[in-house]
Fold this protein.
Amino acid sequence: MSEEKETKAGEKPKKPKIPRQSMPEQDPHKRAGNFDSVTLGYKMEQAALEASRCIQCKKPFCISGCPVSIDIPGFIKLVKEKEYLKAAQHIKKYNLLPAVCGRVCPQEDQCEKVCIVGKKGEPVAIGRLERFVADYEAAHGEVPLPELPPKTGKKVAVVGAGPGGLTVAFDLIMLGHDVTIFEALHKAGGVLVYGIPEFRLPKAIVEREVQYLTRLGVDLKLNHVIGKIRTIDQLMKEDGFDAVFIGSGAGLPWFMDVPGENLNGVYSANEYLTRNNLMKSFDFPKHDTPIKKHKNVAVIGGGNVAMDSVRTALRLGADNAYIVYRRSRAEMPARKEEVDHAEHEGVQFKNLTAPVRVIGNEQGWVTGLECLKMDLGEPDASGRRRPVPVKGSEFIMEMDAVIIAIGTSANPLIAQTTPDLKLNKKGYIEVENETTCRTSKKGVFAGGDIVTGSATVILAMGAGRNAAKSIQQYLQTGEWTPNGKQ
Amino acid sequence: MFEILEKKVWSDEVPKIKEFVVKAPAIAKAHHAGQFIILIVDENGERIPLTIADKDANKGTISILFQEVGKSTMCLGMLNKGDHIHHMAGPLGKPTHVEKFGTVVCVGGGIGIAPVHPIAKAMKDAGNKVISILGARSKDLLIYEDKMKKASHEIRITTDDGSYGRHGFVTDELKHMIEVEKIPIDLVVVIGPPIMMKFVCKVTEPYKLRTFASLNTIMVDGTGMCGACRVTVGGKTKFVCVDGPEFDGHQVDFEEMMMRQRQYLPEEKLARETCEKQTCHKS
Ligand SMILES: Cc1cc2nc3c(=O)[nH]c(=O)nc-3n(C[C@H](O)[C@H](O)[C@H](O)COP(=O)(O)OP(=O)(O)OC[C@H]3O[C@@H](n4cnc5c(N)ncnc54)[C@H](O)[C@@H]3O)c2cc1C
Ligand SMILES: Cc1cc2nc3c(=O)[nH]c(=O)nc-3n(C[C@H](O)[C@H](O)[C@H](O)COP(=O)(O)OP(=O)(O)OC[C@H]3O[C@@H](n4cnc5c(N)ncnc54)[C@H](O)[C@@H]3O)c2cc1C
Ligand code: SF4
Ligand code: SF4
Ligand code: FES
């Protein structure tokens, strides 16, 4: 086959160079006024062209860049051969949610960062291809259910229906165990449904994946806040679960601890996004949960959460939507694509700026944000240059809403009611290591943001996959000795 | 889906007050006094918190009692026996701190009598002497008189218009108990409109009389994830849904709480009007 020739050591591809295929997008001005998808996905011809840019490396670096080690050349080859359904099924052996990861993975820091084609030009658009095949599969009828093995009679409880928990549930049901997911909210998906906006990740996609799980026989119990309706101990001692996986995420929002933070018009990003995504308040009053339409909105932070909030504010009709970030654009933790999209849509960036006070009127509403200019000093522990305040540089921006997106930490509900569950200094659940995902409590495993702090969808799924393997081993052997040491 | 087994209309005039007994065995089993649920009436509904006013763990039921103040409670009120509430999560919030304090005065204002009921019951079961003060605007709007009689050693009633019990506010009765009757009180628990809780706390503060107030801030998730319910207590920001709903009333910044409760007034009005025009999307 011709494509195999191309990979021979040292040999240059002879075909004319094909540029990385760009993905069609909604016009920035138009999309800043609606909640429809920003990027529209590859057409079939584009996917095939893009797939042909992959040189099918014998030692593919890309795989090592993917936290769940998807056989990337393998699925891309199938795309090139126009075997889209097979490609989708191939990816699903590694990744339960390709339609999600293809959209939200920080590919530029993972698989695409190390793609060999990217050394001299632009890397193969792995994420876009992944998204393409997943969407293709979804568009071509209901995905057939795989055959399930005979039941083992073991019962596993999964706490939290985020990407981590969903992955564990999938892997374990495929091994013949009975799986029950307990989710606190009235919809499954975790951050995928309450945090990441519709314009980046249509909720129908998440719903489809969740339905796939319930069709497989996973018992999904919504509105179940573990630690309140049942404790971990009750699940194990009274309800007959043989093992528990905790994937409850890092949902507790941080505030800045500056004056004026409880004024009306100050929100955590979680509140702002939850109202809009989970509760669909952009469609108020058709949906009952209200949201305010603000004129001048400042979003504090520079991560994905900040970008999602500021772009939501624009779509709700803000005249001016600002990102207020204390470092410079280069240090922003958000995906580059999201920052670019935000800028094209008209978001204004106030970098090297830190808020010191929220100002309000007598009725308790936000009227302004007082900020301080920053300079970049020496690199700090994270390797990023530390912002240092410039003395006397205070200034006030007129504002009627301030959204705080400076990070989250672990929700303590489960820990409070499970005294023998060991936490680390920051309040996250301590596990033996990434591979076993074993907590200090026998039969209890944990993974995703509740262990690592806010990370990424694919890392949470990777943790879920490891946990499932470890749970399987535990269920088969009953052994709870740390790895290696018998 | 949670089935409504019984419906009782306490008041059919504005403000309408209704009570449901709902089938929710797991919630009934896990519930402790002071906790609440969050429900969604139908698919497009918002998440609203309501206190668990009573339960029967054997039958697997809980009672919720609510006043129709806006769209969501109006839609809820339109449901009947046999209908279903789409979603319900609970029990949420920390249970009331119950122990033997001595003499406990439970103050319930208006609809607040319902949430105070399980607390009075629990305090009585824990060996306290429970005196309850029930306040209502008028006799017609007084709820749970019989249940509170059972849950307390003694009840006292006040009405704003003098149609029943003492003519006046719950604060008048409480002051009388402290200053005139000189009843030794070890703890006051108060639930009702924020302004009433604020004044009850003002009455007890000079006597350093420990006072628990149960706060009803605006909530979204009710699991500590959004901070919509935040309130300042003793100079620190607390989340009512997970750190509360009960706090030391003398430490609560009631002014801020009331200010935050007014955030969505125009939207709430719009929702109510749309609802009145088209009747709810339910039905
Ligand atoms: C706005 C936003 C944008 C993001 N953008 C990206 C992106 O572009 N790319 C990317 O890779 N990552 C992104 N992330 C990060 C990513 O979403 C998370 O790292 C990932 O979702 C973590 O998965 P998880 O399964 O650990 O937990 P979560 O997704 O947080 O799910 C946890 C679930 O557990 C439930 N739960 C919590 N406590 C309990 C309890 N006591 N009982 C029962 N259920 C409980 C929660 O309701 C939730 O549904 C973003 C995050 C946010 C907030
Ligand atoms: C812990 C707790 C327990 C409660 N227990 C009871 C109870 O037992 N019986 C009862 O009648 N009421 C109770 N409430 C108040 C009840 O939640 C509100 O009356 C209800 O949400 C109003 O919704 P609505 O759409 O009908 O009215 P809206 O028109 O939305 O609002 C009317 C009023 O309710 C407040 N409110 C609006 N949305 C919310 C929300 N999501 N959460 C809290 N308050 C809101 C507003 O500040 C406003 O003052 C409780 C509130 C809390 C926080
Ligand atoms: S899952 Fe993410 S990192 Fe892995 S191949 Fe897909 S886009 Fe790349
Ligand atoms: S590194 Fe790039 S070119 Fe090589 S196999 Fe992976 S995607 Fe293809
Ligand atoms: S209601 Fe969201 S944190 Fe309390």
